[in-house]
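To assess whether ligand presence alters the predicted conformation, the chain was also submitted together with pyridoxal-5'-phosphate. Input:
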Amino acid sequence: MMTLEDCQALDHNDALRALREQFDLPVGVIYLDGNSLGALPSRTAARVQEVVKSEWGCGLIESWNKAGWFDLPNRIGDKIGQLIGARSGEVVATDSTSINLYKVLHAAMSMCRDKASTQRVVLSERSNFPTDLYIAQSLCQQLGFDLVLVEAQEIDTRLAVGDVGILMLTHVNYRTGAMHDMKHVSDAAHRAGAYTVWDLAHSAGAVPVDVHGDGADYAVGCGYKYLNGGPGAPAFVWVHPDHASRFWQPLSGWWGHAHPFQFETAYQPAPNTQRYLCGTQPMLSLAALECGVDSLLAAGPQAMQALREKSIQLTDLFIHLVKHHCTELGVAVVTPQEPAQRGSQVSLTHTAASPSDVPSAYAIVQALIARGVIGDYRAGDPQAPAHSSAAQNLMRFGFTPAYIGFVDVWHAVAHLREVLVKEAWKHSNFMQRHAVT
Ligand SMILES: *Cc1c(COP(=O)(O)O)cnc(C)c1O
């Protein structure tokens, strides 16, 4: 059994402890929602102010050249590339995850249509993040593909049917935190003649990814989760260099042109991932995103390995303490307990009759937030098979190794236990549903 003293000792010996100084977190808050919105890096406010006052206010239009604005999507892309195994020039930071997914899925569909094959299925997981499925639905309608949704364990069998052109998956599941073996799944897809599109929204900055070694053809990811870029931060897109120059992406705007400032009439795409830019990029948001990415790179040359090691220790500790202190109070761990099979979050269920139609899991999260322990709630899908994790209402807790410590984990579980023992969650305050859960 781990004690508070054990946790204090772990914090004391934590080589990444100093990284916490790179973030401004409110006093008294244990922030376990960095998987949804990363915390504010301490440098961001001053950097954004500098961009506003100096680069924009004084430099005016000259800053496109002199302050390096024009190149910023590439400069940040290269930094993100270091976290996902991409080489320089292969990643751009731009637009949102949804929009980037639209671009890469369209390009992957163009590759399928270019081949003589009749593989016209986009295969994905039923429990994938809805926006990914919505984007796929639109493109399938437009380009005559079929979207087929299966459970994770059915992917290999479905690939074997032979009609799958594209396997589109999210590496770490947003609800359960379950992580695919990217190499194993990509290899199976390639054996079946399919291209792979990976969404790294819950991976980039949380777990090491090797887009080259793990067999990705296309990848997108999010800037405001573990990359700490701020609300609505630009996302990123990576395309395998073998494919990058073969097809237009569908949003062929001038920033993706080979010579944007020659203002030619005819579109001619830039020779690499640069073509995945569309229009003028948001410099203020990109400046904030760069601070977020820098806060991770501060973990050193092996940043992702070091962060992952601590992330596993944190999630192991949380699972251990929850099982020990909260099992008899109706709490169960949904996230895989084998570290290789999970990302940096742990999801829990709670079984109890609720005094109102608000589920207990929702009310418990609200009661924890009132105590300064911030996690979030994701409703179960009423159409999913009754005993599957997709059907269950979840309490999600993200463990961002850059700013969460072992004592934080200890206190979070102590609060959870107290909320349950005292039935504090049954208070009417915690039974009000907000728009964003
Ligand atoms: C967070 C997340 C997104 C977010 O997409 P936006 O376009 O930024 O709203 C998309 N896909 C997955 C898997 C996510 O986790």
